[in-house]
UniProtKB/TrEMBL annotation:
<keyword id="KW-0472">Membrane</keyword>
<keyword id="KW-1133">Transmembrane helix</keyword>
<feature type="transmembrane region" description="Helical">
    <location>
        <begin position="235"/>
        <end position="255"/>
    </location>
</feature>
<feature type="signal peptide">
    <location>
        <begin position="1"/>
        <end position="21"/>
    </location>
</feature>
<keyword id="KW-0732">Signal</keyword>
<feature type="transmembrane region" description="Helical">
    <location>
        <begin position="303"/>
        <end position="322"/>
    </location>
</feature>
<feature type="transmembrane region" description="Helical">
    <location>
        <begin position="144"/>
        <end position="168"/>
    </location>
</feature>
<feature type="transmembrane region" description="Helical">
    <location>
        <begin position="267"/>
        <end position="291"/>
    </location>
</feature>
<protein>
    <submittedName>
        <fullName>HupE/UreJ family protein</fullName>
    </submittedName>
</protein>
<keyword id="KW-0812">Transmembrane</keyword>
<feature type="transmembrane region" description="Helical">
    <location>
        <begin position="205"/>
        <end position="223"/>
    </location>
</feature>
<dbReference type="InterPro" id="IPR032809">
    <property type="entry name" value="Put_HupE_UreJ"/>
</dbReference>
<dbReference type="Pfam" id="PF13795">
    <property type="entry name" value="HupE_UreJ_2"/>
</dbReference>
<feature type="transmembrane region" description="Helical">
    <location>
        <begin position="180"/>
        <end position="199"/>
    </location>
</feature>
Amino acid sequence: MRCAIVIAWLAALLLSVPASAHEMRPAYLELHEEKTGEFHVLWKTPMRGAMRLSLSPELSGATERLTPVTAREHGGAAIQTWRLRAVEPLRGQSIRIGGLERTMTDALVRIEFLDGTTWTQRLTPAHPAAAIPTLQSGLRVAGVYLTLGIEHILLGIDHLLFVLALLIITEGAWRLVKTITAFTIAHSITLALVTLGFVHVPQAPVEAVIALSIVFVAAEIVHARGGREGLTARAPWIVALVFGLLHGFGFAGALSEVGLPQGQIPAALLCFNVGVESGQLLFIGAVLSLANITRPVCGPLPPWASLVPPYAIGSVAVFWALQRVSAF
């Protein structure tokens, strides 16, 4: 138990380093062919405060802009739209995101052609360009969204802190299995409902309440350490189920930023969700494995050490809650 406290302490401190969650949101470029060779362009660039990342899409072939660029801001992103004509067919050209190599974010590119086929590709700072093939298989799209899901959960520090808090307060292997299963089922439901358009919720309040959910579980850990067990300590799966619905809205907001490829929505949604679950299991496995490896070498700890993880987690979550409420 003492060793578990050490691991939780270290994990809480490491995860608490970032000042805010979801910093590494991807850029998103969509080209939709409306007439032969004519495309509607949607270009979303992440913003940090009032500053927009200096990124620009570039095609290797000649293009002609048909309309001026219309710009607006929404949901922490700069959104630009315009129409262009491809002088040469896009298939076979290469597309590059200029400036991506100087950032720590990715870019998702999706092209919808007039014949109903689509091409989806994830570009990274290490590989900021790609060739547009003649056709793209569903397997490649699945791989793109699977990777996005894994990266979203592993870079979503608020979701990881919530899972870590559940790991700290949940006693027993069977209880832990039920708790993680409940969290998985809950956020999978709301992720699907929002992504498929059955439910619409404003993202800003959701993000604020997600932060408050972390504060709640952190407070429950402190109460349990003081001998006053609350609902989370007695039935953590119930709390995981309720707040899991909320976290699913957060996952859906991230997925809505990049969108889903028309004609392959079920597969892309499923793979994104599988990616989220895979990343979550990787995190849980890493924490538990580290606890087991270090258990033999852990010495006695002072009583106050058990309070460090919940206070570290709760303090960061309070900061996030205030930050997100002030952004309404």
